[in-house]
Amino acid sequence: MTEPRGATSSAAPAGTAVATPSPLRLPGMDAGTKTVLKAGPRKGSMVVGDIPPGKDELWVLFNCRGQGKVEIVLEPGITMPFTCLDDVVSPIMNRLDLGERRTLTVRIQATDAVEWALRITR
Known about the structure:
The chain is mainly β. It is built from no helices and eight strands.
């Protein structure tokens, strides 16, 4: 079958591989740690939830994909800004040794162009 003059087709020619991005997943965790909060994968901003006080350090594990800026905010007082890249999964891991603290509220600030997944462990 021939296409009318000026028509375009989105189908790849036979034998041509079309790359589809792999799904974004929650970051993994090390043996011996416990997940205290997780969210995603999703796009855009969100109040994720609260982390109860504790004396062990926190590990913030974050994956993102899509062109844009993201901030992981642990209120009160901690902001972690990142730049995510289009078509590339950017894994981020931060260790926070906060000592005894009160409850922290976790918030993600991101544009709708950025897909992300978060896991916080202790």
